[in-house]
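Re-running FAD-dependent oxidoreductase domain-containing protein 2 to confirm reproducibility after the cluster update. Everything else is unchanged from the original entry.
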Amino acid sequence: LSLALYAGSLCTASGAAFLYHDYCVIGAGPSGLQVAYFLQQAGRDYVVFERSHAPGSFFALYPRHRKLISINKQYTGKSNSEFNLRHDWNSLISHDRRLLFRHYSRDFFPNADAMVHYLEDFASLLKLQVQYNTAIIHVTLERDEQAWNGHYFLLTDQDRQNYKCSSLLVATGTWVPNVVNFPGSEYVEGYETVSINPEDFAGQTVLILGRGNSAFETAENILGVTNFIHMVSRSRVRLSWATHYVGDLRAINNGLLDTYQLKSLDGLLEGDLEDLAIVKDKKGKLHITLRFYLENRNTSAGINSITLPQDELDNFATRAPYDRVIRCLGWKFDFSIYNRSLRLMPGKGNKKKYPQIKPSYESRGTRGLFILGTASHSVDFRKSAGGFIHGFRYTTRAVHRLLENRHHGVPWPSTVYSITQLTNSIIKRVNEASGLYQMFSVLADIILLRENATVFEYLEEYPVGVLAELETQTGRKAPDGLFVIIMEYGRNFSGADKDVFYYNRAVGEAQHAWQSNFLHPVIYYYKHLPTEHEMKLRPPDWPLPRPDAVHHIVEDFLTDWTAPNAHILPLRRFLENCLSTDLRNFFAESCFFFAFTRQKLPPFCQQGYVRMQGLMGSEGLRRHAVEAGLLEDYTPRDFSGDKTPDSREGSQDQLLRDHAIPVRPLQHLVNAKDE
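Result of re-run:
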């Protein structure tokens, strides 16, 4: 009845004035501010609604013990800003170099207060359109064929002010605490309210429900003052260094594992929390029992009549009573403000805390509704970094590019190069790109072959899950095939039960690159753009369908894929095999020789030498190339031992001066030697 009356009040208010914007963003956390930046740079009409008085309100409270687990690496030994973002997990993307997180904290694991300060500056210095103290309490649809998506989004705030938008971007994150209800759950304290003063736990026995970073963070804070700490969860502990998933337990919080395995009273248990029950005795102690023991008991009887597990099993693990039980079960998405007309549904299984979305981050139920930030993590849950700043700053940019193409006719940004630059372009990106590096197996660089593979178009950081829709989503065509460049870990290297420190875990030989375990570049070649059907039939755990050819660049201890023989040469030969062409670079003298000895010149000679472009030679340059083994020495030899006459050198220099070829910038020569 309350819902019906509320809906009726909204209908009555439908005649009231609506404030219109093309884009409405709910939430001024990191992802909300990130998309606001992109919208503002593009000159779009948008507004960001934030329920608090400042951006990033989540970080004003969480993590409770104030230490972030996102790394803030000050030094990498390189000045390349794109590369350095690989190891900066807190900065948002912007053109303002002042807004790098390293200017706000020098700590490797920063304090959360620094993040609050950073987000405030990001919003104010960039003059983002954020409307604070505005809590959106209801969202519904209004059908209109003239609207971008066939409907408008109608939003209502706490003051009953109404807003109308053509596209809705939800960036609220997951902030509703996960709560498990069982008999006695009223005695459980929540992570969001429990004391963070260790002295409040002195001499106490504590049970923690949960096994994520918030649970271990809480345990770490009180580890030195408690009698002992037990931790119970339905799943075994997952270490991030084994799973390669940054959301699993990080080393900074795993002190309890030491005290457990070194037998210092603390311990970990596995069990379904819904099967538990908590009983409080007259002294205020909390006893753990099982739900089925309470099903047939006399409810009017006291605790002495309740069967406890230790009554039947005298060495039951949790037979000792606890002083406190703390719930640390993470958070979930708030579905309560969305009308049924939006068909915004929770995911299934372990993704039920997230809304159902497509790989394009658009709602499966409503066109024009996009989920950003942590709440979009269902796309790559337990696989990549899409639930964290260093991941969703890139997926948010991808969503913006999709919107620019869909609503404003702005194609996905791309650069066109000569096919001779194919190897160099790939090597440059896999060594610098931060989006590929952080969103491995999720975002990919796409190389579209054009004009019979004489040129190519390079698109950066496209969501591979919608590869079949590339032409409609980007406004770019793929008539002659394509390459897809992504980063991957080894197929069987990641997992909670994996020993990632085993002997001979690294692969160093190029011929065994396909067995690489650590993160490394993988290049897929398709003669035709994969179809939606092929995407659905891709092998399990493969990010892409089976390609016409695939190449792994062997893993590198320094993540520096520039070794001429181990990295570049195998890549170039793979590309040459796919394209049936020669991608080497040549000096003009070699091109001149090929013109008389081959039916078809290599692309580099066709696009350089034949068009009178290239390096202006000299005897010194030619001699250097000969000594380096890059050119054959065609200098006439005097077998009597005399040197070549000086007159020849003089005439050659004169010839070069008289017939100088226009100079173009020096290109990096990759494996010019005829292998």
